[in-house]
Each structure stands twice: as structure tokens, then as C-alpha cells.
């Protein structure tokens, strides 16, 4: 376990140069139940999700405000080396429609090293957001990185007008369930929901397998 200074972490949009590093991070953590904390998509359009704007877009980091430090990014240091590291990434023409449908990926960057990432699905309803996946590197677990990624994304979406965030946790993942509960998320069906909540939650159903058994538990949090 490595001691992580959260005030040095920059949470920025994933760029095309980051795609292979993000895939490698997910591949390393995927076999472990502690790797993927929330997931509702079996695939992702990485190229469509990569940032193509003229300005770097970042999530707010409350720790940098507390410490007074201004985190900065350096040239990525390829600590996780994919097999095809020497192969250049193809540059595709991505339409605005594809980019909108692909959703967003944010990476946690510290001194040029990607430590984790969070995936937000495309907007289907104006005031609703859905976190698809949260991944942290094995060296940086229990350091508050996952919590920082989720809280920072929640803050951004709340400022953009979102009122509720959903996340789908794989059914056997006790860690994922405990993680989101600690962050204030509730499972659909727990407690007594009013009529408005009931109508909202009807539109967010768990994924089901071939035989109809639920594969995910749906959690939500009001912002």
C-alpha cells in the first residue's frame, strides 16, 4: 500500500493517449472483486469518450483547496505498460452524436501516473446521472481515491443541474455495496419511497441475465 497525497491528484477527462493505460488498469483490477466497484455496461466506447475540447476539463478537488496547493499534470508516465505500447493509436473522426452517446471517463492523475478512473454514462434524463464504473489501482486502495472520484463527479453534476445519481453494483460485490452505502447511496426498494421516488425508480431497473435473474443491485443518491 502506498501513501497517497490526495491534494496532488488531478481528475481530468480521459484523452486518446490515456486509453490503453485505462484499459490496462481495468484489466489488472477486473479479476478482483475490489477492482470494479460499480458497473452497468459490459463495454465502453473509449474513443468516443476521449476528450476532444480545446481546454482541459477537470473535476474539483476539495483537498487542493484545503492544502492551498494547485495540482498540475505532467507527461504521462507509463507505469502500466500495455503489450502493444509501440503501436500508435488510430485517430478516428468522432461525431458529436457519438461523443454524447459514449459518456465520459475521468482519470485520477498524479504526477503523470493514472491511479484510477470513473465512468459516467451518457445522459438519458435531464436531471439524472449514472455512474457506470469506478476503478482504483491496487496500490492506492483504502486511500480515499475512490471516494474522491465519486464526490468530485457528484459535485460537478450537481452544479450542472443533476438531482439524482444512480449506480449499478454487481450482485455478488459486497465491497461495492459497502462502498456506495458509505457515500450515502440507498438501494432501490429499501425504506419507504414517496410517489415521486417510486415513479423515478421504476425507470431504473437492475440488469438481468439470460434466465431473468438480477445481475446488479441499483443504488441511488439525491444530490
UniProtKB/TrEMBL annotation:
<feature type="compositionally biased region" description="Basic and acidic residues">
    <location>
        <begin position="81"/>
        <end position="97"/>
    </location>
</feature>
<dbReference type="InterPro" id="IPR000182">
    <property type="entry name" value="GNAT_dom"/>
</dbReference>
<keyword id="KW-0012">Acyltransferase</keyword>
<keyword id="KW-0812">Transmembrane</keyword>
<keyword id="KW-0472">Membrane</keyword>
<comment type="function">
    <text>Probable acetyltransferase.</text>
</comment>
<dbReference type="Pfam" id="PF13508">
    <property type="entry name" value="Acetyltransf_7"/>
</dbReference>
<comment type="similarity">
    <text>Belongs to the camello family.</text>
</comment>
<dbReference type="InterPro" id="IPR016181">
    <property type="entry name" value="Acyl_CoA_acyltransferase"/>
</dbReference>
<keyword id="KW-1133">Transmembrane helix</keyword>
<dbReference type="InterPro" id="IPR050769">
    <property type="entry name" value="NAT_camello-type"/>
</dbReference>
<feature type="region of interest" description="Disordered">
    <location>
        <begin position="55"/>
        <end position="97"/>
    </location>
</feature>
<protein>
    <recommendedName>
        <fullName>Probable N-acetyltransferase 14</fullName>
    </recommendedName>
</protein>
<keyword id="KW-0808">Transferase</keyword>
<dbReference type="GO" id="GO:0016020">
    <property type="term" value="C:membrane"/>
</dbReference>
<feature type="domain" description="N-acetyltransferase">
    <location>
        <begin position="64"/>
        <end position="204"/>
    </location>
</feature>
<dbReference type="GO" id="GO:0008080">
    <property type="term" value="F:N-acetyltransferase activity"/>
</dbReference>
Amino acid at each position: 500500500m502506498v501513501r497517497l497525497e490526495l491534494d496532488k491528484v488531478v481528475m481530468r477527462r480521459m484523452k486518446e493517449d490515456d486509453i490503453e493505460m485505462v484499459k490496462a488498469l481495468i484489466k489488472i483490477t477486473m479479476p478482483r472483486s475490489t477492482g470494479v466497484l460499480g458497473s452497468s455496461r459490459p463495454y465502453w466506447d473509449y474513443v468516443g469518450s476521449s476528450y476532444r475540447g480545446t481546454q482541459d476539463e477537470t473535476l474539483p478537488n476539495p483537498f487542493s483547496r484545503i492544502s492551498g496547493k494547485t495540482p498540475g499534470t505532467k507527461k504521462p508516465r507509463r507505469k502500466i505498460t500495455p503489450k502493444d505500447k509501440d503501436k500508435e493509436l488510430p485517430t478516428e473522426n468522432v461525431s458529436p452524436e457519438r461523443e454524447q452517446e459514449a459518456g465520459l471517463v475521468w482519470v485520477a492523475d498524479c504526477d503523470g501516473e493514472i491511479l484510477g478512473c470513473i465512468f459516467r454514462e451518457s445522459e438519458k434524463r435531464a436531471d439524472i446521472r449514472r455512474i457506470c464504473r469506478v476503478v482504483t489501482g491496487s496500490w492506492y486502495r483504502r486511500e480515499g481515491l475512490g471516494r474522491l472520484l465519486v464526490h468530485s463527479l457528484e459535485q460537478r453534476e450537481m452544479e450542472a443541474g443533476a438531482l439524482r445519481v444512480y449506480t449499478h453494483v454487481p450482485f455478488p460485490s459486497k465491497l461495492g455495496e459497502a462502498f456506495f452505502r458509505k457515500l450515502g447511496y440507498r438501494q432501490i426498494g429499501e425504506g419507504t419511497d414517496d410517489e415521486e421516488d417510486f415513479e423515478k425508480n421504476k425507470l431504473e431497473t437492475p440488469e438481468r441475465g439470460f434466465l431473468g435473474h438480477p445481475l446488479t443491485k441499483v443504488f441511488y443518491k439525491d444530490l
